[in-house]
Amino acid sequence: MTDQPLDITAFLKLILDALEASKVEYLIGGAIAEWAWGEPRATQDLDIVINLPVKAVGRFSRELGKRDMLVPADIILDTMLEDRADIPLNAIHMYSGLKADVYLMRDGDELRQSAFQRRLLVDYGPPIGEVYVHSPEDLILYKLMYLGLSGQPKHARDIGAILKAKKDQLDYEYLDGWVDRLGLHSLWAELKDDSV
């Protein structure tokens, strides 16, 4: 298509256009979702969950290809059929190097299914427009999990920013229920205490 440099916003728009053209439902997480609920921070990659029916795999692969991201249909199918850890597909833009981590909806992943049902439509204004993002509660849960796995302080900062911005509007019953199921009590208690 083009070898013009892209910023993260233009790259997000390319991904969204490919999803729309493929008629694939999605949910944006990570730093882009943080823009809606906490505070904007720079990022060089996108986190996207997609609900991809097998019949749409070829179409989705072709639409990404039209936008300079090569994700072969057979790789997507292999990922769909493997019973493996939650490892994303990587859609890397050939000219900018920007990357989208594309997570597939999987049977039995109750948290992701719940998050997908609770996704919220947020208007980021031009050029992005309205997009589906994680609810603030689900974004907190994923950030807690990634903080527990990686220890990266950006996740704690992101959770703190959401708590600061949305503290009185969060569904704590939902959060606490999932924190119990995921075994994230100590991390959650520490971050909640820090935000008081």
Fraction of residues in helices? 40-55%
Structural class: alpha+beta
Q: What is the CATH architecture assignment of the largest domain?
A: 2-Layer Sandwich
Number of domains: 2
Strand content: 15-25%
Number of strands: 6
| CA-based gyration radius | 17 Å
Distance between the termini: 49 Å
Number of helices: 9
Low-confidence stretches: none
Q: In which order are the strands of the major sheet placed?
A: 1-2-4-3
CATH class value of the largest domain: Alpha Beta
3D architecture notes:
The protein is α+β, with helices and mostly antiparallel strands and 196 residues long. The protein has 2 domains: 8-134, Beta Polymerase, domain 2 (2-Layer Sandwich); 137-195, no CATH class. It is built from 9 helices and 6 strands; from the N terminus they run αβαβααββαββαααα. The strands form 2 sheets. Strands 1-2-4-3 form a 4-stranded mixed sheet. Helix 1 (8-22) packs antiparallel against helix 3, helix 6 packs antiparallel against helix 7 and helix 7 crosses helix 9 (185-195). The N and C termini lie far apart (49 Å).
List keywords for this structure.
single chain, 196 residues, Beta Polymerase, domain 2, 2 domains, four-stranded mixed sheet, globular
What are the SSEs and their pairings?
Layout: H1 8-22, E1 25-29, H2 30-37, E2 45-51, H3 57-66, H4 73-81, E3 89-92, E4 99-104, H5 110-117, E5 120-123, E6 130-133, H6 136-150, H7 153-166, H8 172-182, H9 185-195
Parallel strand pairs: 2-4
Antiparallel strand pairs: 1-2, 3-4, 5-6
